[in-house]
Design a protein that fits this description.
Length: 438
């Protein structure tokens, strides 16, 4: 998905460009129109003076009284010119010198504005048809606007330069404002990172108003997840405890059954009792639910081992941990994994259990060894094959190892069993778990 910041920056850039281009064009057009209107007004005034200076001599010829016109029309190539056509007679300003513009016929009372190019000059000409003393007169007066155009271009360059600098400055200011606005999300990112690390249990509400509903929803989901996990584990422990009380009643009623059913009845009760004991031990080992918190072997496992020693009194449970840092693995998953493996090892050991954790090739390696019962061959083959479900009917190894297998598979790890172990300490059975550390 496209970055929100990039989208906002692109939209602002596009809108600013459009506005600046429109403003620049309007400013350029406005200046040109004002200049042209100013020159046109001056030409009209000079045309009135030219009509006033036009006189008819007693000989019947027309002449221009130069005293009624500015001296600039007398200076050669001054940029101000006039020409009058009366019948076959043509009167020209001295400023025209050798230039003789062609006058197109125009009706009396009409006028028009013309743009003409003459050598290196650009003329803005006013042509007007009048009637004086009963004779139609074609009057033409012009001014070179090339100097104005050079000023227009200089002004345009300055205008575009200033607008470009203003555009860059505005974009820089807007980018700072956008970054400042998005920097308020840094706290949310830090909170999510701490939540992932397990340092906090909820997100801070000190966030912009626009994303506060999102953080509230996330906090509600986290709270519900923690409550459900805690309720689930508490309920399992309570259920196991309640079942044990009813199991005692069923045991007392066993004597009332016919003798041929008592053995089968006793086996069923023992299996139910075993499951209840295991769930109660799992609840004690796992402790409080802390979803999202990372696994800290050095502080989490000694507490679990101490609990196992209380449950399995008289057995030696050793814990060997390298100098492991906090690991990016869910604490609850790891405690359930290690707890189940260690509980199985303690249950079927004679005297000794060894729990080892170490890092090897960017993997966490967990080895749980005991000196007791050897795994059935079909259980070993089921453990080695990823994706296979452990046979939960195998007494002592079924459901607990099935849960361990699911946890290991969820981390794309491996679980292996070695039932032919022989070392100086007499360990016979070993389970090895390898979990990749991303």
């Amino acid at each position: 998905m496209k970055s929100i910041e990039s989208g906002i920056r692109g939209s602002l850039l596009l809108s600013l460009l459009i506005n600046f281009i429109v403003l620049a064009l309007l400013a350029d057009y406005g200046v040109k129109q004002l200049s042209q209107n100013f020159v046109t007004t001056r030409l009209e005034h000079d045309a009135d003076n030219l009509v006033k200076a036009l006189e008819l001599t007693p000989a019947g010829e027309w002449k221009i009284n130069a005293q009624n016109l500015p001296l600039i029309y007398q200076r050669v190539r001054s940029g101000h010119y006039y020409q009058v056509q009366v019948g076959d007679q043509r009167l020209r300003s001295r400023s025209l010198w050798e230039q003789q513009p062609e006058l197109k016929p125009i009706t009396t009372g009409a006028n028009r504005l013309l743009h003409l190019n003459a050598q290196d000059e650009h003329w803005l000409a006013w042509q007007q048809g009048i009637n004086k003393r009963g004779q139609p007169i074609n009057l033409w007066i012009a001014e070179d606007i090339a100097p104005f155009e050079r000023q227009w271009r200089q002004f345009s360059y300055l205008l575009y330069g200033v607008m470009s600098l203003a555009l860059v400055l505005l974009l820089w200011i807007q980018q700072r404002q956008i970054r400042k606005g998005f920097s308020s999300l840094d706290q949310l990112r830090d909170d999510i990172h701490q939540l992932k690390q397990g340092d906090i249990s909820s997100l801070s509400q000190q966030v912009p108003t626009e994303i506060q509903p999102l953080t509230e929803e996330i906090n509600q989901l986290l709270e519900r997840l923690q409550q459900r996990t805690s309720r689930s584990r508490t309920a399992m422990g309570n259920l196991a405890h309640e079942l044990k009380r009813h199991l005692q009643r069923l045991t007392l009623q066993q004597t009332n059954l016919p003798e041929q059913y008592q053995h089968e009845y006793q086996q069923a009760l023992e299996e139910i009792r075993r499951l209840c004991d295991r769930e109660m031990k799992r609840a004690r080992i796992a402790g409080d639910s802390t979803p999202g918190q990372h696994f800290q072997p050095a502080s989490d496992l000694p507490v679990m081992v101490e609990m196992l020693q209380r449950i399995y009194m008289g057995k030696e449970i050793r814990l060997q941990i390298e100098a492991l840092p906090e690991l990016p693995l869910d604490r609850d998953d790891m405690l359930e994994l290690v707890g189940n493996l260690a509980d199985n090892a303690c249950k079927f050991s004679d005297k000794r259990v060894l729990i080892e954790l170490l890092l090897a090739d960017s993997q966490l390696v967990l080895r749980v060894s005991n000196d007791g019962q050897i795994f059935p061959e079909r259980l070993v083959s089921a453990l080695v094959a990823r994706g296979n479900r452990v046979d939960e009917s195998i007494e002592g190894f079924g459901l607990g190892l099935s849960i361990c297998k699911m946890i290991v598979d969820s981390y794309q790890g491996s679980l292996e069993a070695n039932s032919n172990l022989a070392d100086n300490y007499g360990y016979k059975t070993q389970l090895v778990v390898s979990l990749p550390l991303l």
